[in-house]
Write a sequence for this structure.
């Protein structure tokens, strides 16, 4: 019953095992002939992107190996692949991260390809600027969008209240909230979500005061007084039942769209983005629309800006940079591709493309396009890219403090003071 | 080092170590060669990364740029200037201190019930074990969200008695307790071990006790529990380590935020956020080593005190 194994046989066996193990490593180092692409988004975005990849493959004879993840999982994976020297050729980039990636050469400058592989005729100048870091072009904007308030029109109609328009101020929101409370529809629906922990809403409010979230040199752009005023404003809304309760707002984990206040039926409005109207409408039967964030006083504008919703960049270690640049060019210029993409990534940046797709857009897409095109006096300049620690300040400071005020663990004065001190410390540490 | 000790001890100058190693080699070579695939994996995929993380814990590694040596900065900051670290320690210790004893008590209670030799015991055993298999899964964490939400199952039940319950998961006063209840619900594996332990207690002890007029309660305290202490000890250690490492429930239920107000910010979740949310791999490595030290201390403490309360038969 015993198995006898000679030394030689054994060595052969084990070295075969070793060889097999070593062979297992090699595919990771192999360079595929085609392009590798990685982006964040949902299934709707993936379907559109894959369709464009098929068009590109048909036109250029190069396949694109593409994969996607949700926003939260995307960044760790991209950073890990980049650290491992295995970054994709085409990566989707956000305004928040582009400086970090560019400064570490994790993405490649594209200026050499402009006019050659990368055609940018008729590309919106402000969107082009948004993709530059220290004067060099690192990202091609895939669409313009703007922050916007999502509005549930059915709720306003049911309550018999006029929906907000471009002149609506924070004081008007208070009046609407009181009217909503008097109407008492859908088990006490509130007019607005609690925006005190929303970084874009705070940003918009500060910009209307001529301030900014962050300065160009990466410092906090406002002081304790403004922070206190902000938390006090929302405490007033919360105490008077204008916005949703602390417990309800805490259900929104800032992740899936399904846990947001409008979708959960807790409020009739909430802060969102213009390109997200499409996604939200698929989750709700009530007709939705978008409008601007409230003004701080009648006639005061400048809070909004046309933000590059996202970029495509070329991986810094890519062996196929020229081909990748060609893909980017195809993605933003090709009319067939543009028709597939619609405005799901924001409003296309090339004017001829915009004109070509406009007639075929559905209602939601039309609303988003018109909103971004007609911001008028609401529009201000594009702020500088936020510093590297902005994500941490948003996640572990602003959102936590807004909850602490909401649940009564801190006063607005205390929270405002703490925010400014702690944010400065985080920025200092990251610098 | 082994060589030197050998020289000084026998004084002959004969180096024993090489022959020791060659003896090992000659006698056990096939064994080690058979171990090789595992050994390579163990050294390369377990020990290697562990040692690397020890090195990284003294650097400011951020995934994208090469690590710079920062000395003990990470450890100093952790204990002097990191409110999230303090919050996560508080949350984790409350979780461990409440979930482990309650879970063990619950598991023992169910094991005692099942030990009475009822019909269909294998079926019940399997059913009670089921939550342990499912418990760490994403699906259960999502289910938990539904059960403890504002209009969830718990509040619908309470509404029958005219009680308007809060939204348990989104209220910082209660959110951690929903996670503790989730942990207790996964009592299956300690229960199975308790059940096996109960089977080992000789029946004649109980017979002798009842002849002497000891009631059920007295029998439990004087026979069952003392005889079971080795199993209690084992379960306590395993469950404490599990509780310190707990990650999935809070990650899913709070969607990775540890909210509301850091009330469910488990140690491991804070570590994950530092590493993959803010890309502070160096700091996260330091956090991991501190967690290792905490768990090791707890385990050592348990072993040291065990001689005062664990009763071994032999």
């Amino acid at each position: 019953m015993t198995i006898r194994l000679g030394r030689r046989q054994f060595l052969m066996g084990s070295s075969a095992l070793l060889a097999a193990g070593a062979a297992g490593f090699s595919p990771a180092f192999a360079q595929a002939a085609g392009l590798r692409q990685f982006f964040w988004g949902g299934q709707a975005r993936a379907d559109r992107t894959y369709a464009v990849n098929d068009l590109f493959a048909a036109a250029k004879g190069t396949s694109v190996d593409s994969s996607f993840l949700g926003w939260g999982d995307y960044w760790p994976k991209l950073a890990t692949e980049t650290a491992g020297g295995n970054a994709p050729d085409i990566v989707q980039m956000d305004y928040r991260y582009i400086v970090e990636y560019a400064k570490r050469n994790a993405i490649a400058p594209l200026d050499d390809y402009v006019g050659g592989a990368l055609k940018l005729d008729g590309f919106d100048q402000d969107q082009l600027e948004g993709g530059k870091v220290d004067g060099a072009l690192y990202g091609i904007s895939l669409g313009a969008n703007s922050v916007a308030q999502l509005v549930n029109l059915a709720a306003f109609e049911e309550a018999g209240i006029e929906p907000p328009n471009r002149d609506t101020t924070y004081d008007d929101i208070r009046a609407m909230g009181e009217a909503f409370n008097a109407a008492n529809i859908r088990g006490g629906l509130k007019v607005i979500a609690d925006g005190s922990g929303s970084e874009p809403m705070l940003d918009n409010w500060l910009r209307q005061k001529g301030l900014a979230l962050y300065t160009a040199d990466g410092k906090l752009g406002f002081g304790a007084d403004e922070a206190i005023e902000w938390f006090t404003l929302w405490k007033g809304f919360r105490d008077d039942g204008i916005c949703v309760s602390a417990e309800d707002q805490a259900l929104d984990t800032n992740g899936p769209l399904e846990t947001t206040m409008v979708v959960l039926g807790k409020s009739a409005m909430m802060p969102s983005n213009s390109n997200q109207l499409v996604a939200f409408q698929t989750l709700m039967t009530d007709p939705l629309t978008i409008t601007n964030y409230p003004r701080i006083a009648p006639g005061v504008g400048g809070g909004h800006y046309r933000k590059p919703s996202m970029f495509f960049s070329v991986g810094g270690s890519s062996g196929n940079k020229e081909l990748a640049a060609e893909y980017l060019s195809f993605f933003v210029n090709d009319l067939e591709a543009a028709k597939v993409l619609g405005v799901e990534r924001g409003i296309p940046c090339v004017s001829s493309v915009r004109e070509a797709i406009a007639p075929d857009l559905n209602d939601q897409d039309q609303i988003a396009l018109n909103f971004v095109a007609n911001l008028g006096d609401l529009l201000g300049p594009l702020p500088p890219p936020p510093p590297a620690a902005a994500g941490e300040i948003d996640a572990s400071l602003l959102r936590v403090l807004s909850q602490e005020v909401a649940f009564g663990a801190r006063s607005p004065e205390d929270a405002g003071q703490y925010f400014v001190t702690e944010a400065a410390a985080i920025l200092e540490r990251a610098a | 080092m082994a060589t030197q000790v050998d020289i000084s001890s026998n004084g002959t100058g004969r180096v024993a170590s090489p022959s020791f190693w060659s003896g090992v080699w000659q006698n056990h070579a096939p064994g080690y060669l058979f171990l090789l695939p595992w050994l390579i994996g163990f050294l390369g995929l377990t020990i290697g990364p562990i040692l690397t993380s020890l090195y990284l814990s003294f650097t400011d590694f951020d995934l994208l740029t090469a690590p710079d040596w920062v000395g003990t900065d990470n450890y100093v900051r952790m204990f002097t200037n990191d409110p999230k670290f303090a919050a996560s320690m508080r949350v984790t210790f409350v979780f461990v201190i409440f979930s482990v004893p309650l879970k063990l008590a619950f598991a023992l209670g169910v094991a005692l019930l099942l030990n009475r030799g009822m019909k269909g015991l294998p079926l019940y055993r399997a059913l009670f074990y089921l939550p342990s298999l499912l418990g760490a899964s994403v699906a259960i964490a999502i289910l938990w969200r539904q059960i403890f939400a504002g209009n969830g199952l718990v509040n619908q039940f309470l509404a029958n008695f005219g009680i308007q319950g809060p939204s348990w998961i989104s209220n910082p006063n209660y959110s951690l307790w929903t996670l503790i209840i989730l942990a207790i619900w996964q009592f299956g594996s300690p229960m199975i071990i308790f059940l096996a332990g109960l089977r080992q207690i000789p029946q004649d002890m109980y017979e002798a006790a009842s002849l002497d007029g000891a009631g059920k309660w007295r029998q439990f305290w004087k026979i069952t529990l003392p005889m079971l202490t080795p199993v209690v000890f084992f379960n306590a250690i395993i469950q404490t380590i599990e509780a310190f490492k707990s990650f999935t429930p809070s990650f899913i239920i709070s969607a990775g935020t540890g909210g509301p107000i850091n009330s469910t910010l488990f140690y491991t979740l804070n570590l994950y956020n530092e590493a993959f949310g803010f890309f502070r791999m160096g700091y996260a490595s330091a956090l991991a080593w501190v967690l290792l030290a905490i768990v090791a201390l707890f385990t050592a403490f348990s072993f040291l005190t065990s001689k005062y309360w664990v009763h071994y038969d032999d």
